[in-house]
Design a protein that fits this description.
Keywords: Cell membrane, Membrane, Transmembrane, Transmembrane helix, Transport. The protein has helices at residues 2-39, 61-69, 72-103, 109-119, 128-141, 155-180, 184-191, 196-207, 209-225, 228-233, 241-255, 258-289. Helix 6 (155-180) runs antiparallel to helix 9 and helix 11 (241-255) runs antiparallel to helix 12 (258-289). It has 294 residues and is mainly alpha-helical.
């Protein structure tokens, strides 16, 4: 009895410590976000007092100034366009590629897998300059046809670069998940006369929804939060939200207009929190219901 009581006390202590740690981590994330949200609703005069005082009212003019005057609305649309295109590109290539690598034997498959694994260790931030120089050379070769250029300062090209650099990770994760699905489902669909494409889209892809959701989440965060590649490949007015936020920070610090600055931060943060919450919920639901039952 003493041993059981001791084990029970240790178990309760462990759970209590886990709850304390989880609550501490949640507060460490929630408090700064809430503080920025409240600061974005303050007028300029309110920043000269205590930073923990609640705003006297909802001064939404900061958001209007950030969207219109600071052009954060335009930058927001550019970021949405680049992120959505990047996700479409990477899924269109990675899903069928991962399925073929996982399910079919073909000459050179081992070499392809090694190359994809090697791509996992390449940090795109280290090769952004060679990518930029390559795109500049391509623009020079097309100067007679497109004098204004095509590859530089093009959101579509930026989305393509995002997708190309994230393909190794996406294929690696999807391949591992496709291999974990029993082949009985494919065999049953084939007996019913389904083609390989139909099997992939109607049988395997719905079962791989947890893995697809995971890569969508990780790639979305990578594309949305990128700064270096967007700064390099979009040097003109069509900036992404992260680059536009840097310009806003520089301008508003000099003008001591912190309300507009924090409004710009909220514009960057809120879409990430919303997408993360939605995708995480679907990921958990998919993993809970996506197990193979015997």
């Amino acid at each position: 009895m003493t041993t059981l009581r001791t084990v029970g006390n240790r178990s309760r202590t462990g759970r209590a410590l886990t709850y304390v740690l989880v609550i501490a981590i949640a507060l460490a994330i929630a408090v700064p976000v809430a503080w920025v949200l409240l600061a974005s609703l303050k007028q300029k005069s309110e920043f000269y007092g205590s930073p923990w005082v609640l705003p006297r009212g909802l001064y939404v003019q900061n958001y209007v100034d950030a969207f219109v005057t600071a052009r954060m609305g335009q930058y927001f649309l550019t970021s949405v366009l680049v992120t959505v295109l990047g996700l479409v590109f990477v899924l269109a290539v990675s899903v069928p590629a991962a399925y073929v690598i996982a399910r079919y034997e073909f000459r050179g498959r081992g070499l392809v897998e090694v190359a994809l694994l090697a791509g996992l260790f390449v940090n795109v931030n280290y090769i952004v300059v060679p990518i930029f120089l390559m795109l500049v050379d391509w623009d020079r070769s097309l100067v007679d046809v497109l004098p204004g250029g095509f590859f530089i300062d093009n959101p579509g090209v930026l989305a393509l670069v995002y997708a190309a650099t994230s393909i190794p990770f996406t294929i690696y994760l999807l391949t591992a998940f496709f291999r974990s699905i029993p082949a009985d489902y494919e065999e049953a669909a084939a007996l019913d006369g389904a083609s390989r494409l139909r099997i992939m889209t109607s049988v395997m892809l719905p079962m791989a929804r947890p893995a697809v959701t995971t890569v969508v989440l990780f790639n979305f965060l990578a594309y949305w939060n990128d700064f270096i590649i967007a700064l390099t490949l979009l040097p003109g007015d069509g900036k992404t939200l992260q680059v536009g936020l840097l310009n806003l920070m520089t301008a508003q610090k000099a003008a001591a207009d912190y309300g507009r600055l924090y409004a710009g931060m909220v514009i960057v943060i809120v879409p990430v929190l919303i997408v993360y919450a939605l995708i995480q919920r679907r990921l958990i639901e998919g993993m809970a219901s996506g197990g193979v039952k015997g």
